[in-house]
């Protein structure tokens, strides 16, 4: 057994769900030393504070060293707890999880697979009672089912149905514990959203012929949501969740012979032949040749209202259809609602939606209904970036231009507003459903895989994670430009911009060009690179109450497991990246939530990608899970 975490908390009785209740455990001393850590390397920073200075609030902790442990590793003086793991009960009568006897009926009541986005929404001013809303991005059947029980070429129908139930979201009541932790409780709010759950299609293409199927001739009701990657909590207390790589679930795109239809499918990456999971064998909606419009019903931003357990989830078509990583809201100075969203594919785009109507403060049912409707009507834009240095200074090496910064100006190009299209050859409906093709047409800037985009609640600046793009500069592909300055970009970068108040123009700069700080092609906001943590492949973003940016990573290229990092964006410590935690081997770090005295991360796909596998968190079969981290003395994070 490799379970190096010693638990000192006792299981609690009463209304607490037994499987979810495990006390905090410190990971330090001898237990941590049993597993290998990467040796300190010359030139690699350790992320400690600046000489003679004290780290600013929120980032005062001893950084975790890069490592390949099969554990969550937190700083000295911090403790961790598994809040909920794949298979744990979400609704009250959920059966106990048994990896050897999985059923679709059980999975539909249990916590789904591969947790990604995590939303923690306070139900009261104190933050003691909360809704916990979690995305279940995708299934990995070869990891879920015990070895030798899943035949990829010939899955059993029940295994396919388990997959349908393991997707979607979990909505739960989660309350703070007396020791500062977080536990999932039985409540009337708890529910699972799966591929059986009805969604209401809203906005400009609700009822469009492009969305009608034989099961839904109205084009307004869709069963389920797919590949929900990241998301955002809205100011009105709901969750927006991005349908990302929906293309992979559909089969037989190659049977489409109409050239326009084939071009549209191709732009969204629809594959020929059978799908990986073979769902089309059990429901023909996954077969494009039989139900050609079903695929148009995925690739949207969806909204879940945890405040009302009977609220039907919504698909918001006004935000466009692409591989949405997430969506995050900023309220503009005039009260209109701005939603930012990235399309996570190499050479795809950054978008924003600006509502027609204005935000109504408060979280009453009335205010919530009003604000949710704001996302039905407005203008959809795509971003065009222009560098302010001569193109000759951007040679793909990552060398800073002579003005010392990768920076410039930007323009938001309008695609459609309500029923009006601004793109030649596209109706408004076509802009919303085939957004990528419309954005191609207007000459948007091809980015290095836009992931999470998040406004800083303290400064108002906007941040986007561009995770990587190994094809930048490859034959026949776009070369480096100032906002994407490295060819063969393996480690990604983080972009920052400020809107100028006109709705269509902004000023941008790169905050981080990620990688090994000892390498010449990295940049840490101008901070001394000998005193930062290495960081690779930024994915999800969050802010703490002080306005520090927190970044979780997916696919570390530097030999360490993935992790969570903090970085101040203002003041003398701007750019000082410090590693707060690492996740187990093979896992991706998702969903960071940073409260004053609590950090949450989703540990997605522990052990994925072969040997060495993972037995996190309990020993035995690896299970994706949500982890809470707090300071051992109960104090504020990073203070
Ligand atoms: Fe599912 Fe873009 O990460
Ligand atoms: Ca410049
Ligand atoms: Ca992601
Ligand atoms: Ca990712």
Automatic annotation (TrEMBL):
Region (Disordered) location: 40-69, 472-495
Biased composition range(s): Gly residues: 44-56
Compositionally biased intervals (Basic and acidic residues): 479-495
Keywords for this protein: Signal
InterPro entries from the UniProt entry: PhoX, TAT_signal
Signal peptide start-end: 1-33
Source taxon at top rank: Bacteria
Keyword Signal recorded: yes
This protein's name: PhoX family phosphatase
């Amino acid at each position: 057994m490799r379970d190096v975490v010693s638990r000192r908390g006792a299981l609690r009785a009463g209304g607490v769900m037994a499987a979810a209740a495990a006390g905090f455990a410190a990971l330090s001393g001898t237990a941590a030393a049993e597993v290998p850590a990467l040796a300190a390397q010359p030139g690699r920073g350790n992320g400690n504070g600046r000489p003679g200075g004290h780290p600013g609030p929120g980032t005062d902790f001893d950084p975790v060293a890069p490592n390949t442990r099969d554990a969550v590793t937190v700083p000295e003086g911090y403790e961790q707890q598994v809040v909920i793991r794949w298979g744990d009960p979400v609704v009250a009568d959920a059966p106990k999880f048994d990896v050897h006897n999985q059923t679709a009926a059980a999975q539909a009541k249990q916590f789904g697979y591969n947790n990604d986005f995590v939303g923690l929404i306070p139900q009261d001013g104190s933050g003691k009672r909360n809704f916990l809303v979690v995305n279940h991005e995708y299934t990995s059947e070869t990891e879920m089912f015990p070895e030798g029980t899943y035949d990829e070429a010939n899955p059993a129908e029940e295994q396919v149905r388990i997959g349908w139930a393991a997707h979607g979201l979990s909505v739960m009541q989660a309350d703070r514990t007396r020791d500062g932790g977080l536990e999932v409780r039985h409540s009337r709010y708890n529910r699972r959203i799966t591929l059986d759950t009805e969604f209401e299609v809203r906005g400009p293409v609700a009822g469009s012929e492009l969305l009608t199927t034989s099961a839904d001739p109205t084009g307004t009701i869709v069963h389920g949501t797919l590949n929900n990657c990241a998301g955002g909590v809205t100011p009105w207390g709901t969750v927006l969740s991005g349908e990302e790589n929906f293309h992979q679930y559909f089969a037989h795109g190659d049977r489409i012979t109409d050239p326009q239809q084939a071009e549209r499918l191709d732009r969204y990456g629809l594959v020929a032949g059978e799908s990986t999971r073979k769902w089309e064998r059990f429901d023909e909606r996954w077969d494009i040749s039989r139900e050609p419009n079903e695929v148009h019903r995925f690739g949207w931003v969806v909204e879940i209202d945890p405040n009302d357990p009977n609220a039907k989830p919504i698909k918001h078509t006004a935000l466009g259809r692409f591989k949405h990583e997430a969506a995050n809201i900023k309220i503009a100075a005039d009260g209109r609602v701005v939603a930012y969203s990235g399309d996570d594919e190499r050479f795809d785009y950054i978008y924003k939606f600006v509502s027609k109507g204005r935000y109504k403060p408060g979280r009453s049912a009335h205010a919530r209904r009003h604000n949710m409707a704001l996302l039905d009507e407005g203008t959809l834009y795509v971003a065009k970036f222009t560098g302010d240095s001569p193109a000759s200074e951007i040679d793909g090496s990552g060398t800073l231009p002579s003005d010392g910064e990768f920076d410039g100006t930007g323009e938001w190009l309008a695609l459609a507003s309500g029923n009006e299209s601004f793109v030649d050859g596209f109706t408004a409906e076509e802009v919303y459903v085939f957004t990528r093709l419309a954005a191609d047409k207007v000459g948007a800037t091809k980015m290095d895989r836009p992931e999470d985009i998040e406004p800083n609640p303290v400064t108002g600046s906007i941040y986007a994670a561009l995770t990587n793009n190994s094809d930048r500069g490859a034959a026949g592909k776009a070369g480096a430009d100032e906002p994407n300055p490295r060819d063969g970009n393996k480690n990604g970068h983080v972009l920052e911009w400020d809107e100028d108040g006109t709705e269509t123009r902004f000023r941008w700069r790169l905050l981080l060009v990620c990688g090994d700080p000892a390498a010449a092609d990295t940049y840490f906001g101008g901070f001394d690179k000998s005193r930062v943590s290495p960081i690779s492949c930024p994915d999800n973003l969050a802010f703490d109450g002080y306005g520090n940016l927190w970044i979780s990573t997916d696919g570390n290229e530097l030999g360490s497991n993935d992790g969570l990092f903090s970085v101040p964006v203002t003041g003398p410590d701007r750019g000082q990246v410090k590693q707060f935690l690492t996740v187990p081997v093979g896992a991706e770090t998702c969903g960071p939530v940073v409260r004053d005295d609590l950090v949450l991360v989703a540990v997605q796909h522990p052990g994925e990608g072969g040997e060495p596998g993972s037995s996190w968190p309990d020993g035995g079969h690896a299970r994706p899970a949500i982890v809470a981290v707090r300071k051992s003395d109960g104090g504020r994070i990073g203070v």
